Amino acid sequence: MDQLPPGLSVERHALLEGRERHPWHRRALMTLVALIPLLALFNVFGQAPSTDARAGAEGRMSVQAPERVRGGLMFQARFDVVATTDIKAPQIVLGPGWWEQMTENSVNPQPTASSTSNGRVTLSYGRLNAGQKLTVWIEFQVNPANLGPQETNALLTDGDKPIAQINRSVTVLP
Known about the structure:
Blueprint: H1 10-14, H2 22-41, E1 49-55, E2 59-66, E3 68-70, E4 74-83, E5 90-94, E6 102-108, E7 113-117, E8 120-124, E9 133-142, E10 148-151, E11 154-158, E12 161-166, E13 169-173
Parallel strand pairs: 3-13
Antiparallel strand pairs: 1-2, 2-4, 4-9, 5-8, 5-11, 6-9, 7-8, 10-13, 11-12
């Protein structure tokens, strides 16, 4: 074949002149695609839990939960309470951000009583003697319409008497 079909040239279509940058466009695009899972490994998009702890005269409390979550994600929050003196009526009071556009799937162990006041949820448990530990696990699922930061504070009380308060927040990503 001595001649190429009309519209084709050896330089452009066989030797690819003028297309030297095209491989770099593909490489840049593949790098972006590979970057997303890499960022997820380093917890940029959330889900890995962090722990906050506070202590008072009668006991200490720690909260382990993610600081960033994605819509639709199921996650667990863990509340550890250790009594340094007897706590007659331990209560974990959770701020409204724990339930704002989130679905509670389960609470273990079940509280002896639970109530709400001004958007806060109070979980009441039986007496803790000095040295005893109470661990509460709550499983949540983030509603997909939820976006942005919200306060997820927790307060440990002995009846009406505050013992320790943890101020935290969670950011919901799309």
